[in-house]
Amino acid sequence: MSEIKRILLVEDDPHDVELTLEALEESNLANEVVVARDGAEALDYLYRRGDFAGRASGLPAVVLLDLKLPRISGIEVLKRMRADEALKRIPVVILTSSRESTDLSQCYEIGVNAYVVKPVQIQDFMIAIKQVGVFWVLINESPPGCGKM
Question: What are the structural domains, with CATH classification, of the chain?
Answer without folding.
Answer: 7-139 (3.40.50.2300)
